[in-house]
Amino acid sequence: MTNLLWVALGGAIGASARYGIGLWLINLSKLFPFATLIVNIAGSFLLALLFATQHTQSAPNQQLWLFLGVGVIGAFTTFSTFSLELVVLMQQGEWFKAAMYAFLNVIGCLMAVLLALWLKL
Asked: What's the rounded mean pLDDT across residues 23-27?
């Protein structure tokens, strides 16, 4: 149960930060979705930095990962998780899996949006 609380607390902070950036850039985002772009790039950078830091330690801090990685950054942007997982697959030499993962995520999500709009959900 404690792990869930770490994720929930971090998630509240990350979601609030994303909302705040959206408000801060609301006028600029009318021209181009800059808020989402900034959130996705910043979140990807922060998640990779946390990942690299955690994996250089002999005993990674699970609560820190749950709070910051899954909670704060995960709620801030899920694109960061997608980006990190894709790069890890590439670093492991899993090129086909990486290509399929990227393709299925992008095309699958776009198709899901189109289907939902077509169904008028």
From this structure: 90
Task: Identify whether the C-beta of residue 99 lies closer than 8 Å to the C-beta of residue 41.
Answer: no
The answer to whether residues 33 and 45 belong to one domain is yes
d(CA 21, CA 34): 10
Range of the domain at 106: 78-121
Q: What is the DSSP letter of 65?
A: I
SS3 label, residue 35: helix
Mark whether 48 and 84 lie in a shared domain.
Answer: no
**Which one, of 12, 2, 14, lies nearest residue 72 by Cα?**
14
67 and 24 housed in the same domain: yes
Q: What is the pTM of this model?
A: 0.77
Torsion of CA 72, 80, 92, 4, to 10 degrees: 30
